Amino acid sequence: MKTYFDKLHKWGAIWNYAALAALFMVPVAISIYLSQWPSLGVLAKILPPILILYWPTGIIETVTYIPMLGAGGTYLSFVTGNVSNLKLPCGLNAIENAKVRANTEEGEVISTLSIAVSSIVTTVVIAVGVLAFSPVLPKITAEGSVFKPAFEQVLPALFGALGAGYFFKHWKLGIAPILSGVVVLIFAPTMGVGILMVITIVVSIAGALIIYKNLWLPEFRRMKEAKKK
Amino acid sequence: MYGIAIAIVVFIISQSLFFAVKSWKHGKKLGISSETLKNTVISTILFTLAPSISILATVIVLANALGIVLPWIRLSVIGNLAYETVAAETALGVIGGSLSNPVDNPAAFSTIVWAMTIGACSPLIYLPLVCKKLQNKIGSTVNKNESTKKLGDVLSAAAFIGIISAFIARAINSCTTTKEIVLNEAGEEVTKNVITESSGVISILTLICATVFMLIFTALCKKIKRLEKFESFAMPLAMFAAMGCAILFTAVLPEGLRTFTWYSVGGVM
């Protein structure tokens, strides 16, 4: 019998390839409408820097996010985009609030539900914003607007709030990755978050393994032995 | 053009609704309470509003050069705040142009659309190929016994902390640049990286406020029984409160302090 996970992978793959087709319909339709197809020579010049920057990041992101968001959440996130700055924190916050574990069916359900709702909200906000508020919005976010500082600081506000609970609970794990991130940025302040993330994740996991081996594993064994007695 | 964008919006909403309904039904089957599922939905809506408005602002910024519809489509499918701006800038840099001027050449516009699409599509190609294998492997390794379950929890918390750390580190010390044509000492036009944003006093204060608000709200929800059910809204509320503080700090702090950033905005790197 097919499990929920098997079904999820099947639905995910179908929607993924349908999205890929829909995605390419856009340049095809625009080229037909404008009667202008891109020059291969120019495209060959533009694509290498873009591909070098984004295809490897895409592979790293895929491998990093699957264990945390589960199958449904990852399939949906990669179609709707804005993964690291919105879908990932959204899914993880929902898992934390619902007190379920990632990599279980419960975790999968909560993460998928949260990312689906988040995708709908973002799509609707952008659509309504474009159709109804595009004349007004530039005034809200323009230089000199009262609200501009708020929208400039969305990411510090989002990750400060999201990090609070985690760092409070696992403060031992948080020090090394933040410090390593800040130090790397001293030498390369413009480094994109996609690459910086790889460094901070590696440092964080290495730190966690050391702490786990030296502190939590002996504690865990002691607890197990105490239970046996 | 508007027709294509609306079709994409319908596609994304249909896919999201499909997964939302399937996961809701399966959640009920697993015995997850309606209240937990409802709280997940409401807290997610609140959580998503402010970042969505930021994404909408990126659409508006890109609209200056590319019209409103293309950025709208690109930021609705796969798009990413940082990626779309850089991809469009890279393409414009090669073709000749910048995000501050409208692209009115159809050939250039068509090339940019293709470049942005090809650059962004990679996860859709390999995700279905690796997702199942990777998830099965993780599942079987992590759920082997109690000890590996604990290790799995620790590693997934560590990976998550690693991700948040990258964003926190960027709020503490980073800057973004854009390529612009400037005049050098000899009066010749040269392309340089001009700093457009930098972390500084306001970004660090906002980060601290968000952390403090979150800890206070969570503690209140835990301490006061009546507030317990609002715990899942602590995070979006803390985010909004911290954004409010950013407005307040900008209004009340002395000019020298509020505009203090580590890297001088408008300067060249």
Short summary of the structure?
Chain A has 229 residues and is mostly helical. Chain A has helices spanning 4-34, 40-80, 83-97, 105-133, 137-141, 148-152, 154-169, 171-187, 193-228. Helix content of chain A is 85%, strand content 0%.
Distance between the termini of chain A: 41 Å
Q: Tell me, what's the shape of chain B?
A: globular
Oligomer: heterodimer
Low-confidence stretches of chain A: none
The largest inter-chain interface, given as chain pair and residues per side, is:
A-B, 159 and 160 residues
Radius of gyration of chain B: 23 Å
Helical content of chain B stands at over 70%
Q: Level of helix content of chain A?
A: over 70%
Number of helices of chain B: 10
- Derived from helix and strand composition plus strand pairing, the structural class of chain B reads mainly alpha
Describe the protein's architecture and organization.
The complex is a heterodimer of chains A (229) and B (269). Chain A is mostly helical and 229 residues long. Chain A has 9 helices and no strands. In chain A, α2 (40-80) packs parallel to α3 (83-97), α2 packs across α4 (105-133) and α3 (83-97) crosses α4. The longest helix of chain A has 41 residues, at 40-80. The two termini of chain A are 41 Å apart. Chain B has 2 domains: 1-120, no CATH class; 173-269, no CATH class. A two-stranded antiparallel ribbon of chain B has the order 1-2. Chain B has helices at 2-30, 34-66, 69-76, 81-95, 106-120, 122-142, 146-172, 201-223, 234-252, 255-258; strands at residues 175-183, 189-198. Chain B has 269 residues and is mainly alpha-helical. In chain B, a hairpin with a 5-residue loop joins β1 (175-183) and β2. Chains A and B meet through α1, α2, α3, α4 and α5 of A and α1, α2, α3, α4 and α5 of B.
